[in-house]
Write a structure and sequence with these properties.
The structure is a single chain. With about 200 residues, this protein is an alpha/beta fold. The protein has a single domain, classed as P-loop containing nucleotide triphosphate hydrolases (Rossmann fold), CATH 3.40.50.300. The protein has eight helices and nine strands. Helix 1 crosses helix 7 and helix 5 packs antiparallel against helix 6. The radius of gyration is 18 Å and the shape is globular. It binds guanosine-5'-monophosphate. The site of guanosine-5'-monophosphate has 15 residues, from strand 5, strand 6 and helix 4.
């Protein structure tokens, strides 16, 4: 029975509100670590290096990939994204619970390495709402909105293998659902047993 931190993986189509959910839940659980991904995407207005992403060139990304720096990586909407294996291991070995916000291709790779991770998929209440949110977000060019909608259909098709599904209609309720998932996962036998072994099986 190991006693590393618990890994939480959050996926869902672009525009579904994953970042808002992540921000909301990290206010509730400030000790929950978050893995800053590497990406070849250009920073959007208001984003900063090391807080939202590590923004790197394609060349740097591919060199890191070749060197085995990523525990998972994927191409999404024409850009590369990856999770640093060293960052992930450090948090888990420090027994910190860690949240990853990654696409479905990356989540599948994580599942191969960490089958006991908790996989959570965020859904919109319906397609129209997703389209509206994506258009209103204003961070994408027109064509990109279409590409993200196409990709959303593919991503939604993967929802069925995730452990938990959250419908993000009212943000506060979705944050509440995510917090409940985190709390219940932390109360699972495998998470608690290493801490109470002596209590329930005295020498
Ligand atoms: P965005 O460009 O909108 O920030 O992110 C686009 C997509 O890439 C989102 O679905 C986001 O969850 C995903 N993503 C962000 N970081 C990573 C990562 O490290 N790995 C993978 N596989 N996907 C990521």
């Amino acid at each position: 029975m190991d006693s590393t931190g618990q890994l939480f993986v959050l996926s869902g189509p672009s525009g579904v509100g994953k970042s808002s959910l992540r921000t909301g839940v990290r206010e509730r659980f400030p000790e929950l670590a978050y893995s800053i991904s590497y990406t070849t995407r250009a920073p959007r207005q208001g984003e900063s290096e090391g807080r939202d992403y590590h923004f790197v060139s394609l060349e740097t990304f591919l060199t890191m990939k070749e060197a085995g720096a990523f525990v998972e990586c994927a191409q999404v909407h024409g850009n590369y994204y990856g999770t640093s294996g060293a960052q992930l291991e450090k948090h888990l070995n420090d027994r910190r619970d860690l949240l990853l916000e990654i696409d479905v291709q990356g989540a599948r790779q994580v599942k191969e390495h960490f089958p006991r991770a908790c996989f959570i998929f965020v859904l919109p209440p319906d397609r129209e709402t997703l389209k509206k949110r994506l258009s209103e977000r204003g961070t994408e060019q027109g064509g990109d909105v279409e590409a993200r909608l196409d990709n959303a259909s593919r991503e939604l098709g993967e929802a069925s293998w995730y452990d938990y599904l959250i419908i993000n209609d009212v943000l506060e309720e979705a944050v509440e659902a995510l917090a409940a998932i985190i709390l219940s996962t932390r109360c699972r036998r495998q998470a608690i047993l290493p801490r109470v072994r002596n209590l329930i099986q005295p020498d």
